[in-house]
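Possible race condition, two jobs.
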Amino acid sequence: MLAVVRAEGTTLDPVIVTSYANIILPRFAQPRFIKAVDGLPKMPTAKIQKSALRTRGISSATWDRRANHST
C-alpha cells in the first residue's frame, strides 16, 4: 500500500499515481493499494512508523488497483 499525504487543497488521482509508478518502479514494487492520509505517524526521531500504517490497514477509502482494473 502506498500512503500519500496530499498538499492542502489538492486531490489525489490514483490512476495518475499508478501511471507514474508504472514508469519509475519495477513491476514487483508497484503498489496495489493507494490511500490518501492527512499525515504520516512518526517516532520522536522523525522516522515514519510503518507499523502504525500497517495497523490502519485497508479501508473503504483505499483505492485498489485490481478492483479498478487499472494496468
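Job #2 (started ~2 s after job #1):
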Amino acid sequence: MDNNFNQNGQFGGWSSSPYGYGTEMYNEYIIKKAQKDEKKQELKKIGRKCGLAVILYVIISYGFSFLLMLISWGFPSVSKLYLETTAMLAFDVVITFFSILIPFFIIHLTMKKNKTANILPFGTTYNREFAISLVMVFIPIMVMSALAINSISAVIQDYLGIEFTSAVGDIKLNGFKEIFLGVISVAVVPAIVEETVIRGIVMQPLRKFGDKFAIIASAVFFACMHGNMVQIPYTVIGGLLLGYLAVATGSLWPSVILHFVNNLYSVVVIATNDNLGENASVLAVILMLICFTVIGVIGLIRLIKLKYKVTMAEGSKLLTMSEKISAFVKNGPMIVAIIMITVITISNINF
C-alpha cells in the first residue's frame, strides 16, 4: 500500500468508503442529509415570514394607539370620541385590517413569489354534509371548552392573587347600534380575517410538513398572538378545532362559520348583560348552551350516518416533530416576535 491511500483515493487503505459506510449507504446518507437541510431551510423561511408579520402586527397596532394618543393631546375631543363604544368598535375593525390582514397578506405574496405559499382554500368543501355536521359538533365543544378553561383560569387567578386582563372585557354594548357594531367588530371581521390569516396564510404552507404539525403549530401561533392570558388558553383548543375543520373539509369557510358562531356567543352574553342585567345574561348562557348541545348531538348523529373518513396528510417524513418546531421557531424574526408577544402578555397580568 503506497502513501496510505487505497485505489479509491481514501485515506488508510483499509475501507472502500469513509467511516466504515458502504458507498451506497454513504451516498444515501449524504442525499438524505441534504434533503433534510433543504426542508429545514424551507420551514425556516416560513417561520421568518410569520415572525416578521407578527412584528409588523405589533408595531402597527401600538403605532395606531400611540398616534391616537398624540392626537388626543392636541385635540381632547378626539379622546372623548374614542371613549365611546361605537368609535372604539369602529377603530378595532380598522386595526384588525391594517395590523393583521395587510401584514400577513404581504407576507403571503412574498411566499407565493418564493413558491413556499399554498393556495388559500376558499372554495367548496370536499363533502358538504360532512362539513355541516362537523361544524355542528364543534360548536358546543368550542364554547364549552372556553367556559371550562375560563373557570379553571379564575380559580388559578384567585389562588395566585393575580388578574388576567383583556380588552374584550371592556366592551359595553348598550342599544341596537352598539350591538350591531359589536357583531361586526367581534364576530364577523375577526372570523374572516383571522381564518384567512391563521388557517390560510400560516397553516396552509405548513401542511407540506404534515397536517398534524400544521394544525398544532398554527393553533399555538394563533393563541399567542392574542397577547393575554384570558384568551390564550382556550384559543389553543379553539385553534386546534378550527385547524382540523379547515383540513378535514378542504375549505376555510367552515372554520369561518365556527369562529363566527363562537364569537357571536360572546357578543350575545355581553349585550344581554349590558341591556337586561346579569340574571338575563345567565339565562341567555343556559339557553344557548342547551341549543348548542342539541345542535351538537344532531351533528354527531349525522356524522355517524355519513361514515366519512378523514385522511390527514403526513407530509415530509424527513424531519421529526422536534426538528420541525425548531426550524419554525429558531430564527431571528420569530424569536423577536416571541419576545414581543411575551412582554405584551405579561403586561396584561395584574400582580
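Residues 23-74 form the longest helix (52 residues).
Logs attached separately.
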